[in-house]
């Protein structure tokens, strides 16, 4: 179990904080590895992978959530957000 503060799920009904996903990605992958999220929702897993220097690939069926995740990832990349 990973304890993390409730975010209010503003972007997606099952949204997780990026900070809660980073330890998992750090533990099970190395920089340069590919992190694949077949149900990427708000993009939190992909943002965590991006921050930790992993390559990432996500799939999202909902056009609305795809747009949300894309915007989030682009914004983090522009700001240079990293671990």
Lateral arrangement of strands in the main beta sheet? 1-2
Briefly note the CATH topology name: Rossmann fold
The CATH architecture name reads 3-Layer(aba) Sandwich
Question: Count the helices. How many?
Answer: 3
Number of domains: 1
**What is the helix content?**
40-55%
- Mean model confidence by pLDDT: 84
Q: CA-to-CA gap between the ends?
A: 22 Å
Q: How would you name the CATH homologous superfamily?
A: Vaccinia Virus protein VP39
For the sheet with most strands, the description reads:
2 strands, parallel
Give the CATH class.
Alpha Beta
- Report the C-alpha radius of gyration, rounded: 12 Å
Order of helices and strands: HEHEH
Strand content: 5-15%
The helix-and-strand class reads mainly alpha
Coarse morphology: globular
Brief sketch in words of this structure:
The chain is mainly alpha-helical and 83 residues long. 43% of the residues lie in helices and 10% in strands. The model has no long low-confidence stretch (mean pLDDT 84).
């Amino acid at each position: 179990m990973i304890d993390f503060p409730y975010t209010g799920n503003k972007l997606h009904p099952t949204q997780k904080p990026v900070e809660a996903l980073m330890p998992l990605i750090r533990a099970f992958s190395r920089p340069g590895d590919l992190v694949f999220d077949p149900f990427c929702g708000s993009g939190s897993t992909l943002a965590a992978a991006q921050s930790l220097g992993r390559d990432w690939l996500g799939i999202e069926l909902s056009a609305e959530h795809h747009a949300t995740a894309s915007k989030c990832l682009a914004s983090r990349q522009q700001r240079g957000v990293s671990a």
